[in-house]
Amino acid sequence: MPSMIERVKRFARSPQGRRTTEQVRRAAADPRRRAQAQRLLGRLRGGRR
To answer: Among positive and negative, which fits the CA dihedral 21, 25, 28, 33?
Structure first.
């Protein structure tokens, strides 16, 4: 049975994995999405303020 890392590597090399990677890159380049992700991470790290 392949390890989890091997499964992730295999997915990343697949056409679907490449599409997903490209979508994530485009979303990360968008300033609105980046701010949204920062707020989410801040909430997860620090709880409510």
So the answer is: negative
HSE-CB of 16 using CA atoms within 13 angstroms: 4
Q: Find where tokens 């303020």 sit.
A: 49
What DSSP string describes 10-47? HHHHSHHHHHHHHHHHHHHHSHHHHHHHHHHHHHHHH-
CB atoms within 10 A of CB 44: 8
> pLDDT of 2-49, one tens digit each?
899 999 999 999 999 999 999 989 988 999 999 998 999 999 998 655
Element (H, E) at 5: helix 4-13
